[in-house]
Write a structure and sequence with these properties.
- Helix 13 links the parallel strand 10 and strand 11.
- The two termini are 40 Å apart.
- A 7-stranded antiparallel β-sheet has the order 13-12-1-5-3-19-20. A 6-stranded parallel β-sheet has the order 7-6-11-10-9-8. Strands 18-14-15-21 form a 4-stranded mixed β-sheet.
- The protein is of the alpha/beta class.
- It is built from 17 helices and 21 strands.
- The chain is globular.
- 38% of the residues lie in helices and 20% in strands.
- It folds into 2 domains: 259 residues, nicotinate phosphoribosyltransferase (Alpha-Beta Barrel); 93 residues, TIM Barrel.
Length: 475
């Protein structure tokens, strides 16, 4: 495992030196990771918590790290000696990977000595922001496609790690396979892929290229048919090779379309394949696809069975950053919690103070009604009606009856020791699919979705209001 302890911004370390000099480095504090809304965020799919936990478990400065920090001539020998023995001794409380989450919810909380909690901010945001972003994009693409999406983005990812962990996140969000062989090995997920246009161009003609591929991969023969002319040569030549395969006792997997009018070409190709007796041969499409182009193709009646989605998935092209933040929620003195709040003239940037729990409220049909952020330790009596109100426009209220609740967060690390064990991506995706199915389509649709309610308990709302009035508005 790589030592990523220096995967941080310099100011985390300079603040650490300051906390050390002020004698605040061992004071316990709590920080929340959450994201704010924008016009493209309707819901998100949490991911990256496993890498966050691994990072915390492995947190330490080795000799090379300390030598480098000493060379900067910024840090005292006493501080560097302290870092030499530093390990993560705190708590990580977070949602499960694959959880559907919404703006303002603390999806991950660190409670630890101040220096530790401050140091890990940058890395944790890196893991959670990136993978949550890609898992969310994958979820929307897979919902539009209705399944059968393969992640093809490695060559367009912003670097190797983005390609590897983007593939991981895409599988959490619903992709059924990846072209990324390294990710396939690392995460034990299916890999898929066939040929490039260069294969076809390296033979005297298209038919010869197809025959050669079928010779070596008779059980996994899916042919790329758009190198020259999809309908005049690509599909007819593929059909000829499929017949030859059948005579050898094999059935072809299908064809791939990578360019052109995919709706028209897929419908015509489907007719040709069916007429030739290859009704089960699949048609795969690729080529700068996303949830909107896939939806459009389906509305046009495209006959596409599987989808290879690359650039716009692995880069989340329409929203390349989640915008998650890491904000101080509380400090502790002699075990007593002292809530903290960040104020701003921008209402959306005012934080929710103190230690918190997040509950999801389900109706008697098992559908999600709202999420409810409460002060840590608050209990909800499911036998009594629950009044919910908008945290800003408080006159907007509703009363929920005949419901049940679920605490969305759990201990991943407690006292520096791992509690939540790693799960396979298959298990995480199954959890995501189950929870995603509990939301009405109005909340997850692409166009003009309903805004899902995320409300504060009266106790938390009262604390927030009191602190706002006490401190006054500030930046």
């Amino acid at each position: 495992m790589r030592n990523l302890t220096l995967l941080t911004d310099l100011y985390q370390l300079t603040m650490g030196q300051g906390y050390f000099d002020e004698g605040k480095h061992e004071q316990w504090a709590a920080f929340d990771i959450f994201f704010r809304p924008n016009k493209l965020i309707t819901y998100s799919v949490a991911a990256g918590m496993e890498q966050a936990a691994e990072y915390l478990e492995n947190l330490h400065f080795d000799g090379e790290d300390l030598s480098y920090l000493r060379s900067l001539e910024l840090f005292s020998d006493g501080f560097l000696s302290y870092l030499e023995a530093l390990r993560f001794t705190g708590d990580m409380v977070a949602v499960q990977e694959g959880e559907v989450v919404f703006p303002y919810e603390p999806i991950l909380t660190i409670r630890a000595p101040m220096l530790q909690a401050q140091l890990v901010e940058t890395a944790l945001l890196t893991f959670v922001n990136h993978q949550t972003l890609i898992a969310s994009k994958a979820a929307k693409i897979c919902a539009a496609a209705g399944g059968g999406v393969m992640e093809f983005g490695l060559r367009r990812a912003q670097g190797a790690d983005a390609g590897i962990y983007g593939a991981r996140a895409a599988m959490i969000g619903g992709c059924v396979g990846t072209s990324n062989v390294y990710a396939g090995k690392l995460f034990s997920v299916p890999v898929s892929g066939t040929m490039a246009h260069s294969w076809v161009m390296n033979f005297p003609d298209e038919l010869t290229a197809f025959r050669a591929y079928a010779k070596y991969f008779p059980q996994n023969c899916l042919l790329l048919v758009d190198t020259y002319d999809t309908l005049k040569s690509g599909v007819p030549n593929a059909i000829q090779v499929f017949r030859e395969l059948r005579e050898r006792g094999y059935e072809a997997k299908g064809i791939r379309l990578d360019s052109g009018d995919l709706a028209y070409l897929s419908k015509e190709a489907r007719k040709m394949l069916d007429a030739a007796g290859f009704e089960k041969a699949a048609i795969c499409a690729s080529g700068d696809l996303d949830e909107y182009s896939i939806r459009s193709l389906k509305e046009q009646g495209a006959k596409i069975d599987t989808w290879g989605v690359g650039t716009k998935l692995i880069t989340s092209a329409d929203m390349p950053a989640l915008g998650g933040v890491y904000k101080l929620a509380a400090v502790f003195e002699e075990g007593r919690e002292i809530p903290k709040i960040k104020l701003s003239d921008t209402t959306e940037k005012i934080t929710n103070p103190g230690m918190k729990d997040v509950y999801r409220i389900y109706d008697n049909k098992g559908k999600a009604v709202a999420d409810y952020i409460v002060r840590a330790g608050e209990q909800i009596d499911e036998s009594k009606p629950l009044e919910l109100f908008h945290p800003v426009e408080t006159w907007k209220r509703m009363t929920v009856m005949d419901y049940h609740v679920r605490n969305l967060r759990t201990d991943w690390i407690k006292g520096g020791k791992r509690r939540m064990q790693a799960r396979s991506l298959r298990e995480i995706n199954a959890f995501f699919r189950e929870e995603y199915g509990r939301f009405w389509e109005e909340y997850t649709r692409l166009d003009m979705p309903h805004i899902y309610k995320v409300d504060l308990s009266p106790t938390l709302h009262s604390l927030k209001t009191q602190m706002m009035h006490s401190y006054g508005k500030g930046e």
